[in-house]
Amino acid sequence: MSEQLNFDVVVIGGGPAGYHAAIRAAQLGMKVACIDAALGKDGKPALGGTCLRVGCIPSKALLDSSRQYWNMGHLFDQHGISFKDAKMDVAKMVGRKDAIVKQFTGGIAALFKANKVTAFYGFGQLQPGNVVKVKQHDGSEVELKAANVVLAAGSDSIELPFAKFDGEYIVDNVGALDFTEVPKRLGVIGAGVIGLELGSVWKRLGAEVTVLEALPDFLAAADAEVAKTAAREFKKQGLDIRLGAKVSRTEVTGKGKKKEVVVTYTDKDGEQTITFDKLLVAVGRRAASRGLLAEGTGVKLDQRGVIEVDAHCHTGVDGVWAVGDCVRGPMLAHKGFEEGIAVAELIAGLPGHVNYDTIPWVIYTEPEIAWVGKTEQQLKEDGTPYKTGSFPFAALGRAVAMAEPAGFVKVIAHAETDRVLGLHLVGVGVSELVHEGVLTMEFKGSADDLARICHAHPTLSESIHDAAMAVDKRAIHKAN
């Protein structure tokens, strides 16, 4: 029989939702353990989940590196900067990315130590009675007993039955972060966040990138005008995005260094084939709940393996909670952050809360895409009366001075109360600007409130000020 240790809170998963829950619970005076199975490239435990190890952080490192390189060939000349023989050292770029990941995974381990969170490295499984069995990487087993267990197992890449990951020619986001050289021809299945971001990285470095998207509409979740503008800019950059393209078969052919991936898909013109050197499958993610629950726990999964919870992330089983990618809602790291903190505070008897209506979305392409709240399409479907105001970056002094005039900002407000219902942006730096909308909506502010707040000149944030003024047709820097 394995040893049993007692805690106030046991968290399964050290990703964004899990480590936030663990640290906040420890701050509130509880004895906390956190279990995580992930290993880094060096074979050592690496906290931080998909987001930190193979998602948000490493992809942004590569996006920034590739953007610097792209700008040398496509933007610097506008500033009067010239150079000769620019080259990209892919190994050095990937090494920089790995160093950043290692820095931050180590940072979480240091935070655990500072907050007295006990880390267990291995696979945790919930047993009946709030017991968690841990199979540690060293082969030993330990049982943890707690008054409260937080399930934060995260998510895994969805693998298509006809495009199995081989880690070399057909890859998920993990493989696409670690190419040793720029592929001449890169195929991407899925025009979502991962596909567009990683497709952009390798396109900027010289790859011919073709994105195959099964849906007929581009970025259907985003505002239609934003999606249209983004698609136009991606086309200018040379990204070949094919909509309504349903992939049915993939085959790795050839031998040695001459191997390639032949992809068969169907679109409005019938069956097509296209050949790539590498294929990234980015069709979404699924809750990593397999093996998480022993028989008899009482915790329920839906047909997609998502853990069922109420509005407060409680599973309905006394003392068992679930947060992050393994529960309903958007699979976003910052959503997991807030759920983890909220659950820790609820366990402590405090009023933990997450407002799902004000969670921002960001796609870190060039231009960036961001939004919060409802789109015009959604408001029309709901029958909600609304009014809009927009402002183009091309009329914004700071954006033009930066040689970044693409995109616009749109403010959507209720037609009768003027309350801000959504903020939709495409352009330079909008991943930061979107939070003006988040803050305004959290405090139930109006478009007039945004219009009457003094914004520094010249700044990118003025775009929001002018868009808010345009809601009531009083914009100064554009025709109403």
Automatic annotation (TrEMBL):
Record carries keyword Glycoprotein: no
Q: Where in the cell is it found?
A: Cytoplasm
Q: What class of enzyme is it?
A: oxidoreductase
Chain ranges of the Pyridine nucleotide-disulphide oxidoreductase dimerisation domain: 359-467
What PROSITE patterns does the record point to?
Answer: PYRIDINE_REDOX_1 (PS00076)
Q: Which reaction does it catalyse?
A: N(6)-[(R)-dihydrolipoyl]-L-lysyl-[protein] + NAD(+) = N(6)-[(R)-lipoyl]-L-lysyl-[protein] + NADH + H(+)
What cofactor does this protein call for? FAD
Q: Tell me a Gene Ontology molecular-function term this record carries.
A: dihydrolipoyl dehydrogenase (NADH) activity
Does the record carry Flavoprotein as a key word?
A: yes
Q: Which UniProt keywords are given for this protein, alphabetically ordered?
A: Cytoplasm, Disulfide bond, FAD, Flavoprotein, NAD, Oxidoreductase, Redox-active center
> Boundaries of each FAD/NAD(P)-binding domain copy?
7-340
List the Pfam families: Pyr_redox_2 (PF07992), Pyr_redox_dim (PF02852)
Cofactor details (free text): Binds 1 FAD per subunit.
What's the EC number here?
A: 1.8.1.4
> Anything else the record notes?
The active site is a redox-active disulfide bond.
The entry sums up its family as follows: Belongs to the class-I pyridine nucleotide-disulfide oxidoreductase family.
Q: Which PANTHER family match?
A: DIHYDROLIPOYL DEHYDROGENASE, DISULFIDE OXIDOREDUCTASE
For this entry, the protein name equals Dihydrolipoyl dehydrogenase
Name the source organism: Luteimonas notoginsengisoli
User: What is the gene called?
Assistant: lpdA
